């Protein structure tokens, strides 16, 4: 069968790789709707429970897709293709989105576009208003990923460096938990850190002597665990704000140091941030300062496009390979490579 050519018209996109149930309608670079339903069901477990995430996606995906179409004022007959995150992510959670997307595409015999989640975080920068055109350097830091993407065209990116162990957001969430904060810990850790001193505890900025662009956060997390053990319960309680500020500074410090190192090549005229950790105030401020010093453009997408969302998947789907009906009915996200 010939390669499908998605017709002109809006894309319906679905994203269910982790704990946010998302659907969006996007026309070119223009967002017509972007619905995000964040699952609260994981808070009491202190982290995302994959089985719980899959079950909640099943409950939420129908209403979320319906709301996205309603808010866009578009019905399925006007949709030109259905895009969906095919990985990386929690397999049970991905399967809910993929099955829903297949069913919707099948109903109208539309092209189906499996799309890479990380390409989505990068492609969030291509959306209006104010789309950023390549070349640019994009730091993606979330609960599941931390990488530096060299973006030379809209068709993809080169991974210049990535985490060797924990993602930055994962280290932040685990550190927040050690300090008795809820899940997800990023926003609460940032708030607590505002009352403390980043210099109170000496958590080393990991990988600072490493000449490459990879990241590592597990050592910083262990340093916090040992410090908490040595301080004891009362000591941790008395020093919570200082611990939060020092820990956050070590993680942000590493992200900024690696970004700085990558910029030394002189190849990148602009910088973009993506992933939930990009919501972090001190990180945004430090990257703004860095770009100002170097005379570079900085693109900070709105927070709802930093964290997981389906508009970014619609954007990335425009340079992903569409699959024709009915071939995609057998599409298996477990068998698909995460990156093409
Ligand atoms: O991109 P995202 O919504 O989902 C994943 O793909 O993981 O990122 C979630 C991560 C969590 O680890 C959360 O704690 C972190 O982003 N995060 C923050 C802040 N807001 C969210 N980390 C630091 N500071 C914040 N203000
Ligand atoms: Zn993500």
Could you walk me through the main structural features you see in this protein, from its secondary elements to its overall organization?
The model has no long low-confidence stretch (mean pLDDT 93). A hairpin with a 2-residue loop joins strand 7 (146-153) and strand 8 (156-162). This protein has a 5-stranded mixed beta sheet, with helices on both faces. The protein is 40% helix and 19% strand. The protein has helices spanning 50-72, 91-108, 117-123, 168-178, 186-193, 218-238, 240-263, 281-294, 303-306, 311-317, and strands at residues 11-15, 20-27, 30-38, 81-87, 112-116, 136-141, 146-153, 156-162, 270-274, 297-300. With 340 residues, it is of the alpha/beta class. Helix 1 (50-72) packs parallel to helix 2 (91-108) and helix 5 packs across helix 7 (240-263). Bound molecules: 5'-O-[(R)-(carboxyoxy)(hydroxy)phosphoryl]adenosine and zinc ion. Residues 18, 142-144, 169, 172-173, 184-187, 190, 275-277, 279-280, 307-308 line the site of 5'-O-[(R)-(carboxyoxy)(hydroxy)phosphoryl]adenosine.
